[in-house]
Amino acid sequence: MGHTSLEKIIALQRNPANIRNLCILAHVDHGKTTLADCLVASNGIISSRLAGKLRYLDSREDEQIRGITMKSSAISLHYKHGDQEYLLNLIDSPGHVDFSSEVSTAVRLCDGAIVVVDAVEGVCPQTQVVLRQAWLENIRPVLVINKIDRLIMELKFTPQEAYTHLQKILEQVNAVTGTLFTSKVLEERAEKEKEEEKASETLSGDQVYDWSAGLEEVDDSHLYFSPDQGNVVFASAIDGWGFSIQQFAHIYSQRMGIKASVLLKTLWGDFYLNAKAKKIMKGAQAKGKKPLFVQFVLDNIWSLYNAVVTSRDKEKVEKVVASLGVKVMARDLRHSDPKVLLSAICSQWLPVSQAVLSMVCEKLPSPLDMASERVEKLMSVGARRFDSLPEQTQKLKTAFLQCSSDENAPVIVFVSKMFAVDTKALPQYKQRPLTQEEIAQRRELARQRHADRMAADQTAAESHKELSHSGNTSQESQSAGLNTAKMESLTLKDSKPEEEAELKETFIAFARIYSGVVKKGQRVFVLGPKYDPAQGLSMIPEGCSASDCVSDVPHLSCCSMESLYLLMGRELEELEEVPAGNVLGIRGLEECVLKSATLSTAPACPPFTPLNFEATPIVRVAIEPKHPSEMPKLVRGMRLLNQADPCAEVLIQETGEHVLVTAGEVHLQRCLDDLRDRFAKIEISASKPIIPFRETVVRPPKVDMVNEDLGKQQKVAIIHQVKEESSQGRSSDTLHVDPSGLVTLTTPNRLATVCVRAIPLPQEVTRLLESNSEVIRTLEQINMSLREGKSLDISPRTLEAIAGLKDQLDNLLQGRKWRNAVEHIWAFGPRRCGPNILLNSVESYQRLSVWQCLGRGDKTGETGAQAAVLRDFDNSIISGFQLATLSGPMCEEPLMGVCFCVERWDIQSSAPAQHQDSFEEDSISHKAFADSKVEGSSETSAQVEGMAAGRRPEPASSDCYGPVSGQLIAAMKEACRHAFQAQPQRLMAAMYTCEIMATAEVLGRVYGVLGKREGRVLHEEMKEGTDMFIIKAILPVAESFGFADEIRKRTSGLASPQLVFSHWEVISSDPYWVPTTEEEYLHFGEKADSANQALKYMNAVRRRKGLYVEEKIVEHAEKQRTLSKNK
Ligand SMILES: Nc1nc2c(ncn2[C@@H]2O[C@H](COP(=O)(O)OP(=O)(O)OP(=O)(O)O)[C@@H](O)[C@H]2O)c(=O)[nH]1
Ligand SMILES: [Mg+2]
């Protein structure tokens, strides 16, 4: 535990005003863990000589080997600042994109963050992401510009150049914060205006809005990083030094008699010292003078490095040491590595821990300073507004703000992740140092034993003499003794496996207490993400607590916290109770908490808003055990892995495969290692990554593959293809496809007909829908509640977002084809929120708009008999559309960017009505679905499937086809598939963006690797002041595996890219393309078997899914050879 005793920390935990919960955030490799080492060393937990080399918080073996952090881990530190003592709960987070979910879990528990930026690399993509994450969680950041030593040693900057460079970095960081701030102010202004609008609706309408109103009024100076604000530290974590300008202001105010407050304002900025006038003046740059920062600060550091490292001048060093007043040990002075001497001097002169921790104590908020805005954000889930929550729930806000550790205060705890530790590492299994009495007792015992043995030896020797002739008995007795010893060892061995089985992984919750005192063994409610406090309050009797409540409230369970731990990096310390405002570990929740949860003693507490995850899990692999008999172990292991990782997903696909979805290659590797070594403990084999695709349609191309004008030929070919299929056993008498691509399909009982056309959506629309999927999901939920007759109090922000989406759609869907389209949107799909649209162009059918919650364009529709019948089956059409968009005809991957337009839809009103109710609601709730099964119509679902697969039910009376709604679902799905096939079909590939930093020498090789993998360079620029190039490129996910490794190898580790999922892109080649024109035949040959990338991808997917793959068998090997020569 270092210098600080556990008792001390427990005492500090009781004073929330002096607690700081903070995390370290940065781009990968900017030095977070190294900085954390320095801070940890200041508490004596590790030796300061090892600080920076040990990377203490990277406790996993693979973290040490790879040199990157993969899990965030916490440690509690003690710091004395002025006359106050502080407790700092520090969390180190990973910087690699693959682990950005670990950042989200860390940020949620903190009130502040240290953002670290590499002085050479400056603001990198992940720096922007973490600043955004900090912003979204309303936590306050401070800045550490690290690796200043690289400016001296690597880039060989002069102090003046370094100063200019540092200024630029600050500008970059502030630009990011500025953008975040501006967008927030604009958003808030819009909200305010809207409320005002509501209030003044009855008043006169002529108002003029100033677009920038609000921006100027808001004071944002506290937001920005500036050394004179005291929120910036310059450091070199590896050499152990760091400073804020306060320190230098202090030094120089003593040495030169200038007021510290004056120095504080002028040490950073365009000021210089006029030695003659003994004044500090403005305008250093214009007059060509040295700024104060250069003269007073950087010059000193530069000359120190020069003396110690570059020239290794003993005399100079001694002078410097004397002038700084530091003490250096003789062996450091003699050490062959100058860096040792350097850190020995620097860590006394400008210890980085002191600079950083003082800044943290002064500038970061304590748990008591939590902004009420942040509390409301945490408490209002989804679309609900805070003031619509039950009154008791709203009252809990004061508990948050008070952060009280009173006995009566409600306990509110948030668990942001579960992490697994080896059970043997838990404190209760650890050997404790013995107390004095115990040692004395043992000594006594040992002495006794010794004395006994001496006595026994003596008597044995005597008896041996006596019985030296017969000698039997002694042997017997000896062997008996041996036997008992053996027996003992045997029993010991026997009990071991049992112990081992028990000693497995234990899950500890990574949590923070927002209110109340948590006691060991206490019972609390566990609130699931969907828990509704209003419902809970109405169902749980008043005064009922978690300890005596057997609840059947949905999404609520109870559980007890078996042990509480102080998190100390690699160690855990057991605690009896923990007061509010602290970060802690809790054991005993693994049964009720999967990944994150809210715990409370008050049923009125709402679940916290879900964590913001920046990374989309996209890389999936199928996993199986080497020995099939070990399947159960694998299943159990995967379940544990799922719980232990905030971002990994584990699922069983329809094909029965066990699939693991991860954020990227590095993450995948870590998950597999964990599975193999910790959770399943078996040999496993993983498939190649399964690459996701999307299917879409495009406008018919105007030129053919050899750039000749196409005319009508292409279309003929496509219709030919559809016809071919329909003649292959599909019911052609119910299906008709006209030359323009309009598909007419009649249900098998011939009572209903739908006409559907597929139209490609403009790219911008697809992108818009995709980026707004959350909004669409909310919209869908609201519509559902409205349909069920519930009224919802929707927050203005949500309404704003929905209206915004609608306006944007209106703007993008221009032209004759899309006239009025937005008003007629019927649904989005798949899963009701995807990037495809179902459009209602049935003239005689008016339905409620999906935008009904906006209150405008609200048409109740006509009340004709036909329309009423149609409305009853409305849901079947939507369900059919959802099914069709979920898996397309090309390779059963989801569709994207397709609009299905229903142009005609009739149902003969003689449709049997008794079945309708049961099926109509099936997609609304599971309950309704269950009901329908009870009614005995379960055979219909089988029939729906049968029809979807193209089997044709026997003709008989209309009843034998099952309920009309079911038939309609199938018909709609089929119609959509045919309509899709009637258009030129394309695959869409997932794309990564990557930013690669490389030096000029290796640039060529980077381009080489990118080109080989079908990557496209977007732009390339030179990083200012360095010889590094930054290349931004996009790369198909399908080609990305091994990319990072290859780049690293080819450039001898000089360039290392980070891949981030960016978007979906249409692959331009047509997978179904066959040569149709003379020129094409000439160019590609009859078989056209040159590489068709899209076809390759498509067939790979089909093969994986066990679908039929049409492949040409080589007919004339001879001809093939000549062909390839001709090419
Ligand atoms: N020259 C120099 N190198 C440093 C400094 N601080 C850290 N490094 C080096 O930078 C590399 C990365 O340091 P880490 O502390 O592991 O970086 P990190 O930010 O924790 O990285 P991730 O956790 O993987 O995101 C290591 O090789 C360090 O030795 C510094 O002040 N100067
Ligand atoms: Mg790290």
From TrEMBL:
GO terms for molecular function: GTP binding; GTPase activity; ribosome binding; translation elongation factor activity. Residues 17-368 form the Tr-type G domain. GO terms for cellular component: cytosol; ribonucleoprotein complex. Signal peptide: none annotated. Keywords: Elongation factor, GTP-binding, Hydrolase, Nucleotide-binding, Protein biosynthesis, Ribosome biogenesis. GO terms for biological process: cytosolic ribosome assembly. PROSITE patterns: G_TR_2. Residues 469-482 have a biased composition (Polar residues). InterPro entries: EFG_II, EFG_III/V, EFG_V-like, EFL1, P-loop_NTPase, Ribosomal_Su5_D2-typ_SF, Ribsml_uS5_D2-typ_fold_subgr, Small_GTP-bd. Residues 445-483, 930-959 are annotated as: Disordered. Residues 445-455 have a biased composition (Basic and acidic residues). Pfam families: EFG_C, EFG_III, EFL1, GTP_EFTU. This is Elongation factor-like 1. It comes from Stegastes partitus.
